[in-house]
Structure formats: structure tokens, C-alpha cells
């Protein structure tokens, strides 16, 4: 492999190592987040509170030179609070003019905390930005900075007063990650680490620039895929539409995400081709939020993750 | 014009297929032999009516047993089918099986080369695969256990077949037989039975055992020893014509004929020639009639 490619792959590995200085455990989640970033995708993160979602995303932003913003979603959050709004400003000459004040969405890494607490209208503003990588306000279009990465979180408990994302909007997230509680040893390490020092005391080195991430994204797109691997990805997704356990299957966009995710996983693992293991590893995060399990299967305890795994067998 | 990396990959794939074809042919030959022996053994044992006993080959003046022809045709078709399947369907898979370190990379590189992808990552993949191919081996194309098993099977079946043949198992058909000789013997048997009435009748069996027909073997004396033979045509019994059983015990020629003298001059090395002599003798006797 060429030196340039290896250097970039090493830098992505360095990002992983740096983030793990702050985040104990959760290696799989960090890896999938990085896959999502090198694929130029967005991720939906679901977990109970207190599992270091924010720290994880902030750390990823910290080890790069990318800008970071966090938006705490609430029912009264307006779309303009996210995208920005035009305000009247007085110039030095004394004239008044409308100036677009960019919202928090104008950052490289955006953490949309508890996105299901925002109203559908505000959710839509996020999703438009994610899809188009641009914001339109007062008839003008503003490009979002590149690279652009949204990590939205939602809480699986305490659903009162929430607005669950519609299926069509969930489909726009490349993957959905679920964060589990840490192991006992990991939790002991967390307690030790953060009861003896402040979070800010742990300094992270910037190991990746935004330009390098963009370059990595181009390389990931260029990774060749064997015909049979591509066909396997399509078969997996198509099977979600035929499975008796699944009421609504995944769209062709899922096939795109699955192949792209496989490429991202291959890149992170230092390879320049996609293996079947890459696809299988990406299947659950890519498909779990794009399918609706049939109520009979759900009654029998089949979860979306289990339904996807059953398809892989 | 220099060869691009994609072209090199496609060329490498051709070379792999060529090596695979050689191995496929080798496997095919051995397995076709097994198949031949199995089919022949089955036909030899059950002797189905649909298969003729012998198929004459006029050019070579021999008759080949039908079972041999059927088994040979079946084995040939097996060889073609096996080689085709292995070459077209499984060559690369075999190679990937024996070189798992390059398995998916090679497949991806091949597909990318066929699409003529020239991106940085594709070029890097071509480089890696070409480099890795130097460390791969086509030895695994020839499966030693499979070959050994096939050869052992051939020998076992051949031994079984031989044992069955010698022990009178099945029809007792030899692989090659002289059709003319058999026909002559049959003719002699028929005519002897009709005319002389005293012939033993199993001319075919006697001809197959030369020593029984021609007596003990001994030194062959060279030179001519012409003797006049006087044949008595008058049969001692029976209503039909003939009475010229040539090799049967109850032959109807008169005493004083020097046929015994010729028997002592039989030589195993000259078995065919002696058999020819007997045949010629028979023909001459019959023509005199």
C-alpha cells in the first residue's frame, strides 16, 4: 500500500488511541463513529444517560482541528436556533442591514443531544442540513463547513414528551449505535480516573486535520469492492424486505450505507478492499434503525438487532 | 506500450487459471480412470442386455467388449465435464482456498481490473495483490490426498476386477478377444456336434487355454517336417454333415494323422501363431469337405 494511504490510516488509528485516553472502553462505538466520519455519514447514538456520549464526541473533535458544537434539543427549540437567523446589524457607516447569524449547526462536528425532544420541524432542519450539507435561510443558501458530521443522541427511556424520529428521517442516519453499560473493570477505571483528576486535566493531542479527514473520505470512496461482496450487501438488505420477522425492510439507501460502511471499516483496519466480515460487522449498525420488526416477532422477543443477525445466518 | 497494473492483474489471473487447468486435467485423468474402472466393473458384474458383448473393430480385426467401450465413453465424458467445471468454475476458488491470505483481495482486484478502476486505492490494491501473488503457491491445486485416494481406488477396483475374472465371477469376458478365432471355434463346435456327434463341444474354452489344446510346451525345432495327412470323412455317427471337429476330443478323422506331432511343437511364445495354425487347419479341413 502506498505511504500516503498508510499514513492516513495510521492517523485514524492515532485518533482512536487519543480518544481512549479520555473514554474508558467503548472501543467498538469509537471505531464505528470513526467509520461514520471517514464515510462522510452521520450517526444516531442511543443510550441511557451518563454513558459519556458527549465526552466521546467532544474528544473526537478535540483530537482533530475541527470545530465542535453541541445543541441540546428541547421542545421549544426552533429551527432558526439550529440553523441560524438573520439579524439587523448597524454598520460602521450607520446603515442597517440584515446579516445571517450562523447557528450552531455551522460546525464540523455537531452533537445534537436528545434529538427526539425537538419538535418535528426542528428535527427536519437538522435532517435537511445532514442531507444537503447546506442551510437555506431567507432565500439564501449557506454551505456547511466540510467535513460535516452530526451525531444525534436519543434516550431510550423517559419517552414522555418526545417526538420519535419518523422512519424516513432515521433512514438518513448512516448508522445507529447503541452504547451499553461498561464492564465492572471499566467502570472501576472510570471511577479511578475521574475521581483523582478533572476531565480537562487529560490533554489530547491533535493528530488529524480536517483536510486529512476529507482526504481519507475520498480514499474510502475509492476503495474497490468485489462484485460478490457488493451483491452480498444487496442481498442482505433485500432480505429485510422478505423476512417474516420484519414488517418494513430497508431501502436501497441502506445498501449504499452498508457497502460504504464496509469500505470505511476496511480503511480503518488498514485494508484496501472490503471483506465479507466488514459487511457483517456493519450490518447491525446500518440496518437496525431502518427496519420495523413484525409485531408477532416482537411479541416473541425479537429485536431489530436480532432480526438482522438472523438474516446473516 | 507498458502494461498497466490492472492488465497485470488480469494477466496474473490468466496464469492462475492456466495452472489450474493443468491441475484440473491431472485430477480429471485420474478420476476418469477411477470412473472407467467403476463403470466397467458394474457392467462386468451385471452384464445388462443393452450393452453388446463385443463391438468389432474391423480396421484392427479385433472385437472390443461392449462394456469396455461403454466405460471408456463414460470416462471420457466424465473427464470433459470434470475438467470444464474445475477450469471454469473452481480454478480461482481452489487457488483462494490454498492461499487464504490473498483470497478476497485477489477477487476484488480482479473485479476492479475488469472495471478498469484506476483510483489511488485500486492501484494500491493491485500493487499489494501482485506483491502477494509472488508469495503464493499453486501447489495446492493438486490435492495429494485426493490423488492418492483415487490411485488407491483404481488399484483396489482393478484387483477386485482381476479376482472376479480369474474366479469366474461374472461373464468371464476378457478385455480383448480375437473375434475370428471365437467365431471359428463356435463354428467348429456347432458343426462337430452336428456331424461327428462325438466332439466335446467346448472349443471356445479350449482355445482360451492354449496349453490344454496344444499339449505341454517344449523346445521348438526349426525346419520343415512335412507329413501327409489323410482324413477320413466318414463320420462314425450323427445324421448331419460335417464331422470335422478340429479340436474336440471326438474328432472324426482317421488314425495315422500326424496332428499329435505338431502339438509337441507348441511354444508359449508362439501362442498366437499356433492358434493361427489351428485355425488354418480347421479352415482347410472344412474347405476339403
**Straight-line N-to-C gap of chain A:** 33 Å
Coarse shape of chain A:
globular
Q: Beta fraction of the residues of chain B?
A: under 5%
Q: What's the count of strands of chain A?
A: 11
The total strand number of chain B stands at 2
H/I helix tally of chain A: 13
Average residue-wise pLDDT of chain B: 69
CATH topology of the largest domain in chain A: Rossmann fold
Q: Which class of the largest domain in chain A in CATH terms? A: Alpha Beta
CATH architecture of the largest domain in chain A: 3-Layer(aba) Sandwich
Report the major sheet of chain B: 2 strands, antiparallel
Unreliable residue runs of chain B: 169-206, 235-254
CATH superfamily of the largest domain in chain A: P-loop containing nucleotide triphosphate hydrolases
**Which stretches of chain A are low in confidence, meaning pLDDT under 50 for 5 or more residues running?**
none
**What is the helix tally of chain B?**
10
Strand content of chain A: 15-25%
Task: Decide which structural class fits the backbone of chain B.
Answer: mainly alpha
Strand order of the largest sheet of chain A: 2-5-8-1-9
Helical amount of chain B = 55-70%
Distance between the termini of chain B: 86 Å
Please give the share of residues in helix of chain A: 40-55%
Structure report:
The complex is a heterodimer of chains A (313) and B (289). Chain A has 313 residues and is of the alpha/beta class. Chain A has 2 domains: 2-221, Rossmann fold (3-Layer(aba) Sandwich); 223-313, Magnesium chelatase subunit I, C-Terminal domain (Helicase, Ruva Protein, domain 3), CATH 1.10.8. Chain A is 48% helix and 16% strand. Chain A is built from 13 helices and 11 strands. In chain A, a hairpin with a 2-residue loop joins strand 6 and strand 7 (140-143). In chain A, helix 1 packs across helix 2 and helix 10 (252-268) packs across helix 11. Residues 169-206 and 235-254 of chain B have low confidence and may be disordered. Chain B has 289 residues and is mainly alpha-helical. In chain B, helix 3 crosses helix 4 (120-133). Chain B contains 10 helices and 2 strands. The A-B interface holds A 1-2, 4-5, 219, 222-229, 271-276 and B 104-105, 107-112, 115, 117, 119-125, 127-128.
Amino acid at each position: 500500500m502506498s505511504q500516503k494511504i498508510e499514513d492516513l490510516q495510521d492517523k485514524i488509528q492515532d485518533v482512536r488511541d487519543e480518544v481512549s485516553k479520555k473514554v474508558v472502553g467503548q472501543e467498538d462505538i469509537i471505531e464505528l463513529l470513526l467509520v461514520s466520519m471517514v464515510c462522510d455519514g452521520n450517526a444516531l447514538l442511543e443510550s441511557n444517560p451518563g454513558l459519556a456520549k458527549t465526552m466521546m464526541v467532544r474528544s473526537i473533535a478535540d483530537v482533530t482541528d475541527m470545530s465542535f458544537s453541541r445543541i441540546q434539543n428541547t421542545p421549544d427549540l426552533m429551527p432558526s436556533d439550529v440553523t441560524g437567523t438573520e439579524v439587523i446589524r448597524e454598520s460602521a457607516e450607520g446603515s442597517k442591514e440584515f446579516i445571517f447569524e450562523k447557528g450552531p449547526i455551522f460546525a464540523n462536528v455537531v452533537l445534537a443531544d436528545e434529538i427526539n425532544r425537538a419538535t418535528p420541524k426542528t428535527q427536519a432542519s437538522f435532517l435537511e442540513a445532514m442531507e444537503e450539507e447546506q442551510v437555506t435561510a431567507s432565500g439564501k443558501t449557506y454551505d456547511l463547513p466540510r467535513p460535516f458530521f452530526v451525531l444525534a443522541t436519543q434516550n431510550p427511556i423517559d419517552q414522555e414528551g418526545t417526538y420519535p424520529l419518523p422512519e424516513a428521517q432515521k433512514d438518513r442516519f448512516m448508522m445507529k449505535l447503541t452504547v451499553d453499560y461498561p464492564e465492572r473493570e471499566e467502570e472501576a477505571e472510570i471511577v479511578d480516573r475521574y475521581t483523582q483528576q478533572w476531565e480537562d486535566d487529560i490533554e489530547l493531542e491533535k493528530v488529524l486535520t480536517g483536510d486529512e479527514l476529507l482526504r481519507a473520505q475520498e480514499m474510502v470512496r475509492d476503495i474497490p469492492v468485489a462484485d460478490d461482496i457488493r451483491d452480498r450487501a444487496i442481498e442482505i438488505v433485500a432480505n429485510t424486505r422478505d423476512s417474516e420477522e420484519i414488517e418494513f425492510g430497508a431501502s436501497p439507501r441502506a445498501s449504499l450505507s452498508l457497502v460504504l460502511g464496509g469500505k470505511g471499516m476496511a480503511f480503518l483496519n488498514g485494508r484496501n478492499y472490503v471483506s465479507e466480515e466488514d459487511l457483517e460487522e456493519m450490518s447491525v449498525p446500518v440496518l437496525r434503525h431502518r427496519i420495523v420488526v413484525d409485531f408477532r416477532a416482537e411479541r416473541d422477543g425479537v429485536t431489530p438487532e436480532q432480526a438482522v443477525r438472523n438474516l446473516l445466518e | 506500450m507498458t502494461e498497466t497494473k490492472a492488465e497485470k492483474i488480469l494477466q496474473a489471473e490468466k496464469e492462475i487459471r492456466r495452472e489450474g487447468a493443468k491441475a484440473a486435467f491431472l485430477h480429471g485423468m485420474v478420476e476418469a480412470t477411477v470412473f472407467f474402472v467403476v463403470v466397467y466393473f458394474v457392467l462386468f458384474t451385471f452384464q445388462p442386455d443393452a450393452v453388446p458383448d463385443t463391438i468389432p473393430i474391423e480396421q484392427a480385426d479385433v472385437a472390443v467388449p461392449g462394456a469396455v467401450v461403454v466405460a471408456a465413453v463414460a470416462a471420457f465424458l466424465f473427464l470433459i465435464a470434470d475438467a470444464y467445471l474445475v477450469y471454469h468454475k473452481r480454478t480461482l476458488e481452489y487457488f483462494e482456498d490454498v492461499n487464504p491470505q490473498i483470497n478476497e483481495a485477489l477477487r476484488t482486484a480482479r473485479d476492479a481490473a475488469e472495471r478498469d478502476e484506476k483510483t489511488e486505492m485500486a492501484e494500491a490494491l493491485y500493487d499489494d495483490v501482485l506483491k502477494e501473488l509472488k508469495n503464493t503457491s499453486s501447489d495446492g491445486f493438486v490435492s495429494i490426498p485426493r490423488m492418492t485416494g483415487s490411485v488407491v481406488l483404481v488399484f483396489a477396483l482393478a484387483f477386485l476386477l482381476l479376482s472376479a475374472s480369474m474366479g469366474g465371477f461374472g461373464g468371464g469376458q476378457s478385455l480383448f478377444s480375437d473375434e475370428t478365432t471365437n467365431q471359428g471355434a463356435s463354428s467348429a463346435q456347432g458343426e462337430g456336434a452336428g456331424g461327428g456327434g462325438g466332439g466335446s463341444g467346448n472349443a471356445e474354452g479350449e482355445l482360451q487355454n492354449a496349453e490344454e489344446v496344444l499339449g505341454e510346451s517344449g523346445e521348438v525345432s526349426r525346419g520343415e517336417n512335412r507329413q501327409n495327412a489323410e482324413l477320413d470323412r466318414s463320420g462314425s455317427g450323427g445324421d448331419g454333415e460335417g464331422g470335422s471337429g478340429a479340436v474336440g476330443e471326438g474328432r472324426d478323422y482317421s488314425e495315422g494323422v500326424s496332428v499329435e506331432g505338431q502339438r509337441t511343437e507348441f511354444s508359449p511364445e508362439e501362442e498366437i501363431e499356433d492358434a493361427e495354425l489351428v485355425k488354418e487347419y480347421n479352415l482347410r479341413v472344412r474347405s476339403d469337405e
